Amino acid sequence: MSISQNGYLSKNSSIRSDNAFYHLCFLEDGNLVLYKRKDAYDNEGTPLFAPGTHGRGEKAAVEADAFRIRDKDDNVVWDSQSSPGKKKDVPEGLNLSLVVTEDGELELKDNGVGTVYWSSDTKGGKKGNELSGVSAPEGEFFLAPYANNPLIMAVCAWFSWGFLGYWTMGQKKKAIAAPVYTAAFYLIFLGWIWWLLAVVDTYLCSKKLQEEGSLEPNHCEVPVIGNLPLWK
């Protein structure tokens, strides 16, 4: 299915791919979301693309030179030709349409020769570069646009006790964090705690032996950085 030039999606409307596995939904909150569904009867699905226009979007329209989301005052809040997806400059005089393909791509294309001028980069059901303001199904995770940054993912997992928290329309949502990020961050953190305790223990040991006047070499192992002891 597609949206023809000058056509649009309003809130609570949608189009789908011909095989019914991919649905593009303009939600009540104003966000536009492309969902991948497990089968034609899956009512939830995994979000692949969402430009984060919740609270602002009023309609999503195919215009003469782009696919755009506008607010209630007709201001542009998202534009396909300035988004992170794959894109080309659109020449004048074309007849465009937005298509949801059977392999999970959103494509803004010329109805004449079929040239694609923008796509969501979600082919094959992979998550695109724009994914904001939507809830993840249980067992999945993302913190758009930082899902590919291990450090940020690990920090977020740590501070949310193994969960990644993000916000949608003022309500905090949770999705299970990737175990590898969470485990790695906890191991590094516990390693630093262990080292710090070893430093404190060695220091206290040294002070005690000094006070007793029985300090001899190797009675206490002094932590070192490189070849330099932390204290003498």
From TrEMBL:
Domain Bulb-type lectin: 1-156
Superkingdom of origin: Eukaryota
TM region(s), chain numbering: 151-169, 176-197
Gene3D superfamilies for the chain: Bulb-type lectin domain
Residue ranges the record marks as coiled coil: none
InterPro entries: Bulb-type_lectin_dom, Bulb-type_lectin_dom_sf
Keyword Membrane: yes
Keyword Transcription regulation: no
Keywords: Membrane, Transmembrane, Transmembrane helix
Record's protein name: Bulb-type lectin domain-containing protein
Protein source organism: Percolomonas cosmopolitus
Higher taxonomy: Eukaryota, Discoba, Heterolobosea, Tetramitia, Eutetramitia
